[in-house]
Amino acid sequence: MDMSQYLGIFLDEAREHLQNLNDQLMTLEEHSDDSELLNSIFRSAHTLKGSSGQMGFNNMMELTHTMENVFDALRNKKITASADMVDVLFEGLDHLAAMIDSIEQSGSDARDVAETKKQLEALTGKKDTSKSETVKSSNDGAMKQQNDPQAHFLKLEDYEKAYVKQALDQNLKVYEIQVTLNKDCVLKAARAYMIANALEEEGTILATRPATEAIEKEEFDQKLVYLAAVACDEQKLKHKIETISEVAALDVSSISEIEEQRAPQKQQTVATEKKRDQTSRTSAAAVKKPVAVAKTLRVNLDRIDQLMNLFEELMIDRGRLERVASDNHHSDLSDTVEKIKRVTNQMQETLLNLRMEPIEQVFNRFPRLVRSLSKELNKKVNFVVKGGDTELDRTVIEELGDPLMHMIRNSMDHGIELPAVREAKGKNPEGTLTLAAYYNGNQVIVEIKDDGAGINREKVLDKAIEKNVVTEEEARTMTENQIDHLLFASGFSTADKISDISGRGVGLDVVESKIQSLNGTVEVVSAPDQGTTFTVKLPMTLSIINALLIQTGEEVYAVPITSITETALKRQVKTFTIHDQTVMDYRESVIPLVSLADYFAVPDRKTDKREGSENRGAVVILSHGDKKVALTADQLLGYQDVVVKPLGKYLEKVPGFSGTTILGDGRAALIIDCQRLIETNKTIKERA
Amino acid sequence: MTSQEKQLKVILFEMNGETYGVPVEQVLSIEKVDGITRLPNAASFVKGVMNLRSIITPIIDVRERFQMGHSKITPESRIIVVEQDEMSVGLLVDSSKEVLDIDADQLEQTPEMIGGSSAEYLSAVAKIGEDQLLLLLNLKQVLNQNDVAALRAIGDEA
């Protein structure tokens, strides 16, 4: 049986369950007697087992099954949770995560998990009891009905009625679908899974008989009943299900009203429970809640990009239209153009929002990291996460995980002290590590803050000199901020001994380059014995940046505003020459002056022979870390929000640019890679 | 097999007085030359990039790619946008001509001596008309990125 078309859904859902399990296991350690939590964990594990089995990933299924047994025993109070137990369970989750990755990459879930499985089995004190006792669902009413093949939806639970009512209110059609499978159908659960998928492609399943758990365990004869809210018509629905093989009979009837209406009250409950709802959504598919589910849609990112492209074209034409309108002084035309402008501005915002996702997705993986690090390092840490709902461009989120991890490791390793040391300093033996995200204008700020020892600047300097990052001479004139920033210098590690946590040679230096590649900045502030704060500033989106357009000769380039410290007119600055290198005075220091025309060898530049011509033009001060370069151009054309487009595969190796953008007149302009400009200039200077 | 069964549709263009062709299914569009943005640091045959319906398209001067000097842009000049390995690249050529059906049996292996250094960029030749030769481009080779990098590396050393 070919299940490959379900692979995508399977992987997505498996990852979702895994994340739930991870989150809930963290909570479990503190709330080991929360039966609601235990039930939810069990359900997630159970669904994961079911779906991996249906997809034919037996290794994964077996491992989940072993874990499920532990959860079941916990739930039934046969055993109680301990830190060691949670460790083993986490180990199991790691294996599952690795399996999911490997399924995605190679289609195989092969992995050696024997050791973990043995440990898991030891927890329950019994070897695999293949059919664990019947699941006692919290929802007995549904269970009673499940084995009655004649079950009809005349007897709906109150909450189910509420969903039907809601779906009808939303003008969706609600159908009762009775499916009878062939008598000799082998993989009944798999068929049921395919039917459920077919239905979900069209809408939402409101309820099933028997309940999903029973379906997964194949605890039914041949008959399945679904109640679904869909947008398509009966014909299409029928056709979809009929094409699934081994379906013997199908009966679809429409439900147009529901006799009793206690919906409003119920609706509220659903809304407030939205969060928990996500947790149990797929596991308790029997009670799919239209409020949470019907509103989301998985869309291929390519399609959104395509939409973006079309929109940009529209924006360019809008610019032309605006010019025509302003040239023609026709009031109807101007009014219409004005209106188009407003609408397109809103469209732009909406489109950008499509790519936004909550930063939670990265934050979620850190509680576990902190937990295991604090055990390893024998430190006590209270990990606080704030602002997980802050939204960022999906591309940024994907890239953010590693840099944040390095900074958290650094804070855990070097920042927060051992409990005894903290006590001696009169601090709370338990350190606090805060990971917070919030908006600041067009930027998103992510802070990693610890209340530890702070940066030992003396040690940093010694190390930096020892590793030839700075010379002793340079070291004497460095400000505290500059010293702190040395943490990000490459090939730098202050750990006394190379630990497993940080100081592996790679670390904070990767952080800075990564954050900069996302057009962001990272800073560190520290006070002795009060702690260290890493502050990452990121643009909300990578697709649109604010840039300064500069012109030299006929050519226009864009400079990302994040790299610009300030701008000046050339005649305002004092320049002179040292060793063939033109430099300028800048706040009591001297920085190199680079001409845009020379840097990019701009051709056909009309040389202005008039007097004082070398004083014409403008200067843009660019900075990267604490290095600065002054870039000169003929003129500054102004700041503008520009849409960033990559140079593309064919030209990806061409250095000097971080992308391109399209100007109002439809021409392409290059976005200068300021980091490279500054660093190339350094090497030129060293050579000279 | 009759010649009817295996036909190749090619778009013809002219360069340096010779007639070249690319398979029509690899051609996305033919554009007039307008608004190419120069791309510093790229290999010399990369004329720059152009915005074509919101897609930034690299433009390469085929003549320079073949080391036959560089193209002069005239009102006849065209950009043939082709697709190869999921990249779209514009080829700057002297002028574009008609679409032609060629029978597969008209195609011949590229003789070693044709066009000198450019022979490696051809996949086949075909006789069209009395004394005209059609040179069929090997786009994979023409758009070989290793060359772009290699040439640039030489530039960096200098």
Automatic annotation (TrEMBL), chain A:
Top-rank lineage group of the source organism: Bacteria
Family matches, as Gene3D superfamilies: Histidine kinase CheA-like, homodimeric domain (1.10.287.560), Histidine kinase CheA-like, P2 response regulator-binding domain (3.30.70.1110), Histidine kinase-like ATPase, C-terminal domain (3.30.565.10), HPT domain (1.20.120.160), SH3 Domains (2.30.30.40)
Residue stretches making up the Histidine kinase domain: 292-542
UniProt catalytic activity: ATP + protein L-histidine = ADP + protein N-phospho-L-histidine
Residues with Phosphohistidine modification: H46
Compositionally biased intervals (Polar residues): 135-147
SUPFAM superfamilies found in the cross-reference section: ATPase domain of HSP90 chaperone/DNA topoisomerase II/histidine kinase, CheW-like, CheY-binding domain of CheA, Histidine-containing phosphotransfer domain, HPT domain, Homodimeric domain of signal transducing histidine kinase
Keywords, ordered alphabetically: ATP-binding, Chemotaxis, Coiled coil, Kinase, Nucleotide-binding, Phosphoprotein, Transferase, Two-component regulatory system
Enzyme Commission (EC) number: 2.7.13.3
Coiled-coil annotated residue ranges, if any: 11-38
Pfam family, any one: Hpt
Regions of compositional bias (Basic and acidic residues) in chain numbering: 121-134
Region of interest: Disordered: 121-147, 261-283
InterPro entries: Bact_Chemotaxis_CheA (IPR051315), CheA-like_dim (IPR004105), CheA-like_homodim_sf (IPR037006), CheA-like_P2_sf (IPR037052), CheA_P2-bd (IPR010808), CheW-like_dom_sf (IPR036061), CheW-lke_dom (IPR002545), CheY-binding_CheA (IPR035891)
Every HPt domain range: 1-103
Domain (CheW-like): residue spans on this chain: 544-683
Name of the top EC class for this enzyme: transferase
Protein name: Chemotaxis protein CheA
Species the sequence originates in: Sporolactobacillus terrae
Highest classification ranks of the organism: Bacteria, Bacillati, Bacillota, Bacilli, Bacillales
UniProtKB/TrEMBL annotation, chain B:
Ranges in coiled-coil conformation: none
Pfam (any one): CheW
Any Gene Ontology CC annotation: cytosol
Superkingdom of origin: Bacteria
Domain CheW-like: 7-148
Any one Gene Ontology BP term: signal transduction
Name assigned to this protein: Chemotaxis protein CheW
Organism: Sporolactobacillus terrae
